[in-house]
Design brief:
Strand order of the largest sheet: 5-6-7-8-9-10
Distance between the termini: 67 Å
CATH topology of the largest domain: TIM Barrel
Strand content: 5-15%
CATH class of the largest domain: Alpha Beta
Radius of gyration: 23 Å
C-alpha cells in the first residue's frame, strides 16, 4: 500500500497488490516444486544389489523392557538393531501385528517402498510409537544390506560427505533442569572435558511441552544462560532447548537473552505443533531456530521447510521412522537452503545411527547431537558394542564415522542371547 500511494495515488494500490500476490504465489509454488522433486528421488542405492535380497526372517527379540530387531536373508546375511530405549517397550506389539508382514518375504532392495507401505497401511496408527518400530526394522535391514556389500549403512543411502562428525553435547538433560545451574554446569563440564566438545546444548524451562512458561525455579533459565557463558567462555558454541516450555511472549523474551549472550541456536521454545506461533517467535528474533524432533509425517516437514518455520530441522532418527525418511528431509532442506541436524534419543545405539546418517547427509549443520558412548538399553544395561574398524573416541570434539560394514559395529553375541524371540 505504501509503495502504491507514493507512486501516485490509491488507485494504483490494488493492481500493485495483485501483481505482488501473483509473484509471491509463484515463488511459493516454485519452492514447493523443488521440495517435491527432492522427495521423489529414490534413496536406497538399489544398483549396489544386482540380485534380490529376500528377507526370510524378521524377528523381535525381548529381554524385559529392551527390544532388538534381527533380520536374516534367504542367503543367511544378518542385520541387528537395538530398539528405542523407552518407547519400544510399550509399542513392540505394533512390530508383530502391524509391521512385520510388510517386510517378511520381501525384497530388501525395495526398502524405500516397503517403508512407505508400512506407514500408509497404518494411517490410523500414525505417531512416534509406530515410527520407532519402523526405524528399528529399517536399521536392521540396512545393517544386513551393508554386511552383504561390505559398505557402511550410510553409504547405502548417500555418498560419503562427512567422514568425521563434530559433536555438540546433549547430555545431563535432567540435571540441567532439576539442579542449580552451578551444579549442573559442573557436570556438563566433566562431559566436555572428556570429549573436548566445542559445542554444548543446555535446557530451558521445565521442558513439559505445555507452553505455560513453567520453570522449576523462578529465574533459573536466565541464570543458566548467563552462567554457562561465564563457565565455558566466549569461544564455546552454546545452544538451548526449550522442549515446548514457553508461550510466544516468553519464548521471545528468553530468545532476546540468548541473542545477548551469543547462543548458536534456539530449539523448540514453544510446543512442537504450534506452527503459526513458532513463525511469530522466529520473526521477532535473529537467533537461528531449530525444531522438528517430534514430527512423524513427511508432509509436516514439507510445510516446515517450505515455510521456513525453522532454519535448522531436526528429524529424530527413531521418532521420524529411520534414515531413509530422514534423507528425504535432508534433501528438502538442501533444496530450500536450510540446515539439518538429526536428533537422537538418549540410550541404545542412538549415536551409531546418528554417525551413519550424518556421514552422508547433505545440508548437515556444523555440530551434531551426542550423548556419550556408554549408553544404556531400556533395562539400564550398557550395550556391549565395539566398532568394526577404528575404535570409538571423541578427539577434540570430533568422532570418526565407523567405516565397517552395515552399522559399523559388532554387538556382543552373548548380550543378544539374553533376549528371546517373541513368537506371538
Amino acid at each position: 500500500m505504501k509503495s502504491a500511494t507514493f507512486a501516485g495515488g490509491i488507485s494504483l494500490a490494488f493492481p500493485v497488490i495483485a501483481c505482488s500476490s501473483k509473484r509471491g504465489t509463484s515463488a511459493i509454488r516454485d519452492r514447493y516444486a523443488q521440495l517435491d522433486a527432492a522427495l521423489k528421488r529414490p534413496v536406497l542405492k538399489r544398483e549396489l544389489f544386482p540380485e534380490p535380497v529376500i528377507i526370510e526372517r524378521i524377528e523381535l527379540l525381548r529381554d524385559r523392557s529392551n527390544c532388538i530387531c534381527r533380520v536374516i536373508s534367504k542367503d543367511s546375511a544378518e542385520g541387528v538393531s537395538i530398539g528405542h530405549p523407552f518407547i519400544a517397550k510399550s509399542s513392540w506389539p505394533m512390530f508383530q501385528h502391524n509391521l512385520r508382514h510388510h517386510f517378511h518375504g520381501k525384497d530388501a532392495r525395495d526398502l524405500d517402498q516397503l517403508i512407505f507401505n508400512a506407514h500408509e497401511s497404518n494411517i490410523k496408527r500414525q505417531g512416534i510409537p509406530l515410527c520407532v518400530q519402523i526405524a528399528s526394522i529399517e536399521f536392521a535391514i540396512l545393517d544386513m544390506l551393508g554386511n552383504i556389500v561390505n559398505k557402511p549403512a550410510g553409504q547405502l543411502i548417500g555418498d560419503l560427505i562427512h567422514p568425521d562428525v563434530a559433536i555438540y553435547l546433549g547430555t545431563r538433560l535432567g540435571d540441567l533442569r532439576r539442579k542449580e545451574p552451578k551444579i549442573s554446569l559442573e557436570l556438563v563440564k566433566q562431559d566436555q572435558e572428556e570429549t573436548k566438545a566445542k559445542a554444548i546444548k543446555l535446557r530451558a524451562g521445565r521442558g513439559d511441552n505445555l507452553g505455560q512458561n513453567n520453570e522449576n525455579a523462578p529465574g533459573r533459565t536466565e541464570r543458566l544462560i548467563r552462567m554457562a557463558r561465564e563457565v565455558f567462555g566466549n569461544d564455546m558454541i552454546l545452544m538451548i532447548d526449550g522442549n515446548g516450555t514457553y508461550d510466544v511472549k516468553e519464548a521471545i523474551r528468553i530468545g532476546k537473552i540468548l541473542e545477548e549472550y551469543n547462543y548458536y541456536f534456539y530449539e523448540e521454545p514453544i510446543p512442537w505443533d504450534w506452527y503459526e506461533e513458532q513463525k511469530q517467535v522466529q520473526a521477532a528474533l535473529s537467533i537461528p531456530m531449530a525444531g522438528g524432533e517430534e514430527e512423524f509425517g513427511v508432509h509436516a516437514f514439507r510445510y516446515l521447510i517450505g515455510k521456513e518455520v525453522f532454519q535448522i530441522v531436526q528429524p529424530d532418527l527413531f521418532y521420524y521412522g529411520g534414515m531413509i525418511r530422514t534423507m528425504q528431509v535432508a534433501r528438502m532442506a538442501e533444496a530450500a537452503g536450510l540446515q539439518i541436524t538429526p536428533h537422537i534419543s538418549g540410550g541404545g545405539l542412538g549415536y551409531v545411527y546418528m554417525l551413519q546418517m550424518v556421514s552422508v547427509c547433505p545440508a548437515a549443520a556444523e555440530y551434531h547431537e551426542f550423548k556419550m558412548f556408554h549408553t544404556r538399553d531400556a533395562n539400564g544395561t550398557v550395550v556391549p558394542v565395539e566398532s568394526k574398524a577404528e575404535p570409538f573416541e571423541s578427539i577434540d570434539g570430533i568422532i570418526k564415522v565407523p567405516m565397517g560394514s552395515g552399522l559399523g559395529v559388532r554387538i556382543d553375541p552373548n548380550y543378544i542371547k539374553t533376549h528371546q524371540v517373541v513368537r506371538a
